[in-house]
Amino acid sequence: MFGYELPGELRDLMRGCDVRRHPHYEAGTEIYLLQRGDERLYLKVARGGGLGREWLVLRWIGDRLPVPEPVWFGEEGGREFLVSGEVEGIPVYLVYEGDRSDAVIAMARALRMIHSLDPSGCPFSYPVEGKVSALEEKLGADGPGLSWLREGMPAEEPVFTHGDYCLPNVLVAEGELGGVIDWDFGGLADRYVDFVLAVWSLGYNFGVGEAERVWAPLFFEEYGVELDRERFRYYWRINELLD
Which one, of 63, 82, 78, lies nearest residue 184 by Cα? Predict the structure, then answer.
């Protein structure tokens, strides 16, 4: 099934499990469901270091947020392997149209909870300065029209962020939060990093017009913030350039 060598500890952990490929898509990552009786675990396989980051972030979060339990992590042949527990629910983008309001409210409450987590000891930090430097290297520091990157850089207000806060990564069950998954970009950053990705995902999954009229206002009302539109535009433009 795999076509490559699995670490011995992982083979032992998987013994007796029914193994099948999971349909959830994550760029550059294979995901498998491991089931033994009523126990369900998830195996991710990838190259590039993301799963190692996710392992450390999940261990740091512990039981303070509804996230997958980190079970095992290892490396073999240039690949990383992460086994984690199950989070109940379905991704927000899959809810029925009539259930979208409750799902968006749950998504906003979850993000407020994430941003309120005590950041002490967080293993990763993603300051905007680093993103600007990466863009200048990618596009050329003297590139036309790029002066706004530094001239308009807002003073950061770092909190613990998810880093990829989109609808597929938030699971809900019967209108309530089930949990939040895929933490390979979790770390300290400005909360607007998550705001931008959430709004982008609302537009991508529910339609841009509907997101602007209905879902983004509901999201920010439930989160409890008056949106700084200039700050939002700055992070939105950076996100577009980084893609």
Answer: 82
Residue pair 113/162 in contact (Cβ under 8 Å)? The answer is no
pLDDT in tens, 207-227: 999 999 999 999 999 999 999
Domains in the chain, ordered, with CATH?
A: 8-85 (3.30.200.20), 90-242 (3.90.1200.10)
Q: What pLDDT digit, counting tens, does each position of 70-81 carry?
A: 999 999 999 999
Helices (H), the chain: 8-14, 50-61, 100-115, 128-139, 148-151, 191-206, 208-210, 216-223, 229-242
| pTM score of the predicted model | 0.94
Contact 220, 227 (CB under 8 A): yes
79, 44 contact by CB (below 8 A): no
Q: 12 is written with which tokens?
A: 């032992």
Picking from 22-26, 151-155, 187-191, 232-236, which range would have the lowest pLDDT averaged per residue?
22-26
Q: What are the tokens at 159?
A: 């909190």
Phi (first) and psi of residue 92, to 5 degrees: -55, -35
Report the distance separating Cα 215 and Cα 97, nearest Å.
12
